[in-house]
Design goal:
Length: 403
């Protein structure tokens, strides 16, 4: 038996007036997913425990089968592991975004125009981050370049209880009330402010401006945490797994649990990613002997954060046509298999950030091809109407793997 999880990050949504109070999942043309849904177990799952942040870190830990209330130690350490950074038990890892802020005389009066600096390319951002590291690294602070706008800061003996805000939560807002607070907030704020002078008039930014693109005008620190420890997936479930994602966070969860992280050429973490390449990579992993593959697609989440309704629908359609379709065809040549499709959390386009609502899931077993309900499609309402509800998200994996 082979097992495949297809996770469309932020794919769930709220009813949208522009869509006649339908959701992107309602409106998306997704014949392959809907084919499975008519023959599948559908339901809702609560991936974010009460009192925990509605982030991809918490939610994906749950989907992987690990209780976030026990194993969550912060977002950035998981990303650091994926980036090959060695963490000590006293290090604090922080996510470092390259962001676009508005102009204003005082830093605190600026607005968060773009949490991704126009989805800056990895090549451009690496140049910027290396210059930031050259200027700001010291005995306690070390910057590491990552992918696109997503980078890492390691702070030796850094505080864990410093209060930091994800930049995608404050799009178009004045940043003053969201600046670092709490222990050693002055250190974090000083780094952010100093980055402005380093990035100002930087040749990379000048070229972006000339091309009509958003420049990276500041770093933004958030997602702090300590070195994580989770059970090995193979020891918990007896399965040898691989994870396929363009996002360091997801690769980090897979790696810390002993999975193989598969890099796909052209995987970007946005709607221009190599969708088909992820499907092909998954099939190769399964053919080469892996029992379990976790395919993560960031595109719906990015579209939700940007408030891009049409693009979010398009991202769902691309998951269906470029990933689910080829997988179904390719899996016919392998053993029996089970597929689970779900988001980690909702990212409603109306609020442009995550929420902790339960999300819809689909579990299909190739040995059970009888149509259960011809009228069912994979939507929030269809899954809610089944009455199946998983209260503790980390138990969904047990259900999927039938353990």
């Amino acid at each position: 038996m082979k097992y495949i999880v297809i996770l469309g990050d932020g794919m769930a949504d709220w009813p949208v007036e522009e869509l006649g109070n339908s959701t992107p999942l309602d409106k998306a043309n997704k014949p392959n997913i809907d084919y499975l849904s008519k023959r599948a177990t559908l339901g809702m799952v609560k991936t974010v425990p009460d009192g925990m942040p509605a982030g991809s870190d918490v939610a994906n830990l749950a989907v992987f089968g690990f209780d976030p209330r026990i194993y969550y130690t912060g977002r950035s350490p998981l990303e650091a592991i994926s980036m090959g950074i060695e963490l000590t038990n006293t290090d604090t890892a922080l996510r470092c975004n390259l962001v676009t802020l508005s102009d204003a005389d005082q830093y605190e009066n600026r607005r968060m125009l773009d949490y991704s600096s126009g989805e800056i390319t990895t090549e451009e951002s690496n140049i910027l981050m290396k210059d930031i590291a050259k200027a700001l690294n010291n005995d306690f602070i070390s910057f590491y370049p990552g992918i696109s706008y997503r980078h890492c800061l390691i702070w030796k003996n850094g505080p864990l209880d410093i209060e930091l805000t994800p930049p995608h939560d404050i799009s178009d807002k004045v940043i003053g009330e969201y600046l670092p607070k709490g222990p050693q907030n002055n250190v974090a704020l000083e780094l952010m402010q100093k980055s402005v002078e380093i990035l100002k008039n930087h040749p990379v930014n000048q070229r972006r401006i000339d091309r009509g693109l958003n420049p990276a005008t500041s770093i933004w620190l958030w997602g702090q945490g300590k070195k994580p420890s989770v059970p090995l997936f193979i020891e918990k479930y007896g399965l040898c797994g691989s994870v396929i994602s363009a996002v360091d966070l997801i690769k980090g969860i897979g790696m810390v649990s002993g999975m193989k992280a598969v890099n796909v050429e052209g995987a970007t973490g946005n709607i221009h990613t190599n969708f088909r390449g992820k499907a092909e990579a998954a099939l190769k992993e399964l053919k080469d002997g892996r029992d379990f593959v976790y395919i993560h697609v960031e595109a719906p989440d990015e579209c939700g954060h940007q408030g891009q309704l049409k693009e979010k629908i398009r991202a769902i359609e691309l998951i269906d046509s470029k990933i689910v379709g080829p997988l179904i065809k390719g899996l016919e040549k392998l053993d029996d298999y089970r597929i689970m499709i779900l988001p980690d959390h909702a990212t409603p386009v109306s609020i442009r950030t995550h929420c902790a609502d339960p999300v819809p899931f689909l579990i299909y077993d190739s040995r059970k091809t009888t149509v259960i309900n011809e009228d069912v499609t994979y939507t929030e309402n269809s899954c809610r109407n089944t009455g199946t509800f998983i209260e503790e998200g980390h138990k969904l994996m047990d259900m999927f793997l039938q353990v």
